Amino acid sequence: MTDNKFFVTTPIYYVNDVPHIGHVCTTVMADIIARYHRQKKEEVFFLTGTDEHGQKIAEEAEKEKLSPQEFCDKISPRFETAWRSLNISFDYFIRTTDLRHKKIVSEVLAKIYDKGDVYKGKYEGYYCVGCEKFLTEADMVDNKCPLHPPEKTAFRSEDNWFFKLSKYVPRLIELIENDKTNYIYPAGKRKEILTKLKAGVRDVSISRENVKWGIPLPWDEKQITYVWFDALLNYYSATQFLENRKGFWPAGLHLVGKEISWFHTVIWQAMLLSVELALPKKVFIHSFYTIDGQKMSKSLGNVISPEKLVEIFEVDGARYLIASSFPAENDVDVGIDRFKEKYNADLANNLGNLVSRVAKLAEGMVIEQKEITFDKEFEKLFDSYKISELINLIFEKYINISNEKLNQVGPWKLEKSDPKRIDVLKFCINNLKIIAYNLRPIMPEVSEKIGKCLDNQVMPLQNILFNRIK
Ligand code: MSP
To answer: Between the CA atoms of 39, 313, 446 and 320, what dihedral angle is there, to the nearest 10 degrees?
Structure first.
């Protein structure tokens, strides 16, 4: 892989649910990072999609009296449509029911088998269908999964195939402890994973006897591949079955929520070590949104949909709010009312007002063209995915200062030829160009509009950038 290639992924979302703000936050963040790398002239491959096999999906399909495939065909496009409506620049939308993906899953599993990394055993323990996960003591509260309704946890005892995860633990510890090969970000999560690895890890069951909806194991067709073994492989399979994408492996960045970090930092790496494939360079584990102080849930009815966000805040407004409230290290509480306040304060009253004032006052002014690149300080924040800090800094360094200066000098009171008026407008125009360039990955359309009205000769805005919301 040349240094110029960058492969970024989101988790592939389960189709038992329709898109919500939790899915939106990971996807918007991945899009911002993808756009940032494209703006730096890198060759980017941005992959997202849907996770369609397993018991959970089969049960949901049955409730709707559809075949699992019909059910997936109905829900999966809702994710694709949601991402298009948010201007998500994904290069490919993968579905795990795609035959090309299934073929690669079978091939990889056969290799793991040939390596001698699987054995038949008895699985006994609790399983949460909500997580599609075998629960350890530490995962449970009163023998139930705390993340899902209690009826989703059930005791299971069946013959399964197991993957020798424990065999790869020493190697994983070594990789994570070495600063050069550590792939877990941020540092707090790295520590958590290391502690868990060092505490001892059991082998993992990779097949299900009683689940029908999935990919049969190549060496034992009565057993269906555990949905996570199938799903994780999407990241690799897409690079193999699509044309001209092979050079993008290994992934540069997997973005995932904290609840699925173990799969992405331990199980996935062990699978890749088993088949001797290169490991992803980074896994960025983020925290969660809560909504008005509560966990988001269908039963509470507090779920925020992407449609609602776009309807109220339009595309770039929604992207901005997601980026500025992104739950990086800690959970972040959000709500529509607070979003409205932030939108009005930052976008309508501050940035929007600045652009419209400057474009109007400076109409006709000829601008000297300078090449702009990412500000070094901002680049650092993009590279560490600290997008809300980046936004604050852009406001501090360029937006607030421009508005303050405008208010101080009051160019509207001065003659057009007054050097003080010309100076302050030049200062603001220069800042706006920097703002538009650095905000482009976050608000691509708005940035383009700002750029256009400040191109060569200043033109007033065609339409107001951000309408105030009541
Ligand atoms: N299908 C698996 C992932 C397989 S990847 C090989 C899955 N799907 S999911 O539909 O449940 O999506 C989980 C992801 O949605 C989380 O990792 C996170 O990215 C996002 N979020 C879900 N709820 C969230 C919040 N409340 N807050 C922020 N993000 C959350 O797990």
So the answer is: -40
Judge if the beta carbon of residue 280 lies within 6 A of ligand 1: no
Q: Is residue 128 annotated as part of the catalytic site, yes or no?
A: yes
Cα separation values, 254 from 47, 185, 320, Å: 10, 10, 22
Q: Is 20 a catalytic site residue?
A: yes
Q: Which of the listed residues 288, 305, 330 should we mutate to test ligand 1's pocket, taking the one with most ligand atoms within 8 A of CB?
A: 288
How is the chain split among helix, strand and coil, in percent rounded to 5? 50, 15, 35
What the block records as the tokens of 37 is 């790398």
SS3 92: strand
Q: Tokens in use for 220?
A: 């034992």
Q: Is 399 in the pocket of ligand 1 (CB under 6 A)?
A: no
Torsion, Cα of 173, 176, 181, 182 (10° steps): 170
- For strands 204-205 and 153-163, give the pairing: antiparallel
Question: How far apart (Å, rounded) are the C-alpha atoms in residues 284 and 251?
Answer: 12
Per-residue pLDDT of the chain (470 residues; tens, 9 = 90+): 447 999 999 999 999 989 999 999 999 999 999 999 999 999 999 999 999 999 999 999 999 999 999 999 999 999 999 999 999 999 999 999 999 999 999 999 999 999 999 999 998 889 999 898 889 888 899 989 998 889 999 998 989 999 999 999 999 999 999 999 999 999 999 999 999 999 999 999 999 988 999 999 999 999 999 999 999 999 999 999 999 999 999 999 999 999 999 999 999 999 999 999 999 999 999 999 999 999 887 777 889 999 999 999 999 999 999 999 999 999 999 999 999 999 999 999 999 999 999 999 999 999 888 889 998 999 999 999 999 999 999 999 999 999 999 999 999 999 999 999 999 999 999 999 999 999 999 999 999 999 999 988 999 888 899 999 98
Q: Closest ligand 1 atom, CA of 255?
A: 19
